[in-house]
Amino acid sequence: MTGDASGAGRGTGVRVLRPGAEVLLVLGVSLGQSAVYSVLSLADSLTRGPLNQQTQTLNPQQNTRALFDLIEQLLAIAFPLVPVLLALYLMGPGVLRRIGLDLRRPGFDVGAGVLLAACIGVPGLALYFGAVALNLNLNVATSGIGPQWYAVPVLVLSAARAAVQEEVIVVAFLVDRLDAKGWRSWTVLLTSALLRGSYHLYQGFGGFVGNAIMGVVFVLVYRRWGRVAPLVVAHFILDLVSFVGYDLLKQLAPGLLP
Question: Is 72 left (phi over 0), alpha (psi -120 to 50) or beta?
Fold first, then answer.
C-alpha cells in the first residue's frame, strides 16, 4: 500500500457543497424552476388581454383516457417530492426532528395548523376576488380532472404534495441553508416570501401578493414555533378546501364555475 494520511479523501470524487450551491440546485429542480415558468406564464397572459377574462386551471386532465390520466396524475404528484427528499438529505441526520416534521406533538401541529388555515384562508379568498374584480388576477379553476371516480383522491394527494413540497423547501430548507450562510433574518424572510409569491405569478398579481404575505407569516411562525408540521397542516387544509370544494361545487352546480 502507498500514500499517506494527508491525501485521504483526495481523488475520491466526493465534494461537499456549500449552502448557497445547495439552495440553487434544489430550487433549480423544484420551485425555482416553477417561478421562472410562472413569470413566463404571466407575461403570456398579459399579452392575451384582460387577466380577469382568462382562466388558469390547476390539476388539469393529463390524458383523455381515464386509466392513463390516473397514472399520469399520480406521477405528477410523486416526482415533485424527489427534490423534497433531496432537501431533507442535504440538511443532514436528524433533520425531521430538527425542523419539526415528526410526530412528537401531533395535537399542537394539527391545532396550530387549523388556526393558521382559518386566519389565512378567509382574507386570502377576499384578496383573490378583489384582485379578479380589479383585473389583477386570472380566474383560477382548481380542478380540471372532471367527474372521474379518482378525482377526489387525486386532489387530496395533490394538496398533500403541495403542502409538503412548499413548506419543506421554501421554509424549512431555505431558512436552514440561508441561516448557514449568515444571512440576516429579515433577508431570509423576504427571500422565502418573494419566492413563494413568484411561483404563483401564473395566477396574476393577486396570487403573488397573497402568497407572499402568506410566506411572511409562515416564516415568522416557523421561527417562533420551530416546527414546520403546522405549516404543512395549514397548507394542506387550504388546498384541500380549494381543490376538492371547487371540484364538488362544479359537479353539483355545473355552469356556475369556469
Answer: alpha
Q: Is 94 helix (H, G, I), strand (E, B) or coil?
A: coil
Please say if the pLDDT value at position 158 is more than 60: yes
pLDDT at 1: 45
Best CA proximity match to 228, nearest among 173, 187, 180: 173
| Residue 149 burial (CB count, 10 A) | 8
Mean pLDDT, residues 110-130 taken together? 96
pTM of the model: 0.90
Dihedral pair phi/psi, residue 141, rounded to 5°: -95, 115
| Pick from 84, 81, 92, 99: nearest CA to 16 | 92
What region does 182 belong to: left with phi over 0, alpha with psi -120 to 50, or beta? Answer: left
The answer for 146, left when phi > 0, alpha when psi is -120 to 50, beta otherwise, is left
Percent of the chain with pLDDT over 90: 85
